[in-house]
Each structure stands twice: as structure tokens, then as C-alpha cells.
Structure prediction request, 141 residues.
Amino acid sequence: MSEYDNDIVLWSEHQAALLRRLAAGERINDQVDWGNVIEEIESVGRSEVKAVRSALLQALLHDLKAEAWPLSPYVDHWRAEAVRARGEAADDFTESMRAKIDLAAIYRRALRAMPATIDGQPPLPVPEQCPVTLDELLSEE
Prediction:
């Protein structure tokens, strides 16, 4: 079993040290675990996109609950959570993510995550299609 499989922290520290030496001009290219280094770098990007998608899902779900149960005592909390989640998404969003974010799919997931009832009340109708754009979700207003 490799250092990568046994202790990712130790592996990452070792690989970072090797890359620093390589950047300084040392000839240690054969010691770098290139396959896993490449995979980890790609993984960072995937994780960032996933975090933005997750925050957008939370924002949409809280907005949907506030719309579907407007008389609930939780509406203010849901609205605040939606604003918080939008802020997280906006903070982490980069333009290169735009093509990787399918807002319609995220909205469908939010619809599926809606509870059947809250406080014994069924939801009021909500839009079947996402009523906002990605830019609107990410805006500060």
C-alpha cells in the first residue's frame, strides 16, 4: 500500500516538498507521484464546484419552503438561511464554474427535497421550473 493510500496528509506534505524542490530546479521528477498529484488537483476543482452547487441547493430549498408555507413561524429563519447560502455560493463561485452548474437540475433536487408537510400543513403550489437565474441567485441583493 502506498503513502497516498495510508496517510494522505503525509503524502500531500511529501509531494508539496518534492514540487518545491522541482520548482527550485532540482532533478527529482521521478520521485513525484504525478498520477495522484494530478488527481488531487482535479479533485480540488470538483470539490469547489460541489460546494457551490450545495449552497445553491440549500438557498433554493429554503426559498421554496418559505414560499410553500408563508404562514409558518419558520419563514424568517428560512429566508435568513437562503441569504446565508446564497452568500456562500457567491463567495466561492468563479466564472469557470458557470458551465458546470445546471441550475434546472439543482432546482429539481430542491423540489424533491421539499417535505410533504410542515406543522401538518401541505405546501402551497410552487413553480415547477426554477424562477430565478444563476446570476440572480449569486447577486448581493
Remarks:
- Residues 4 and 11 are 5 Å apart (CA to CA).
- The mean pLDDT is 94.
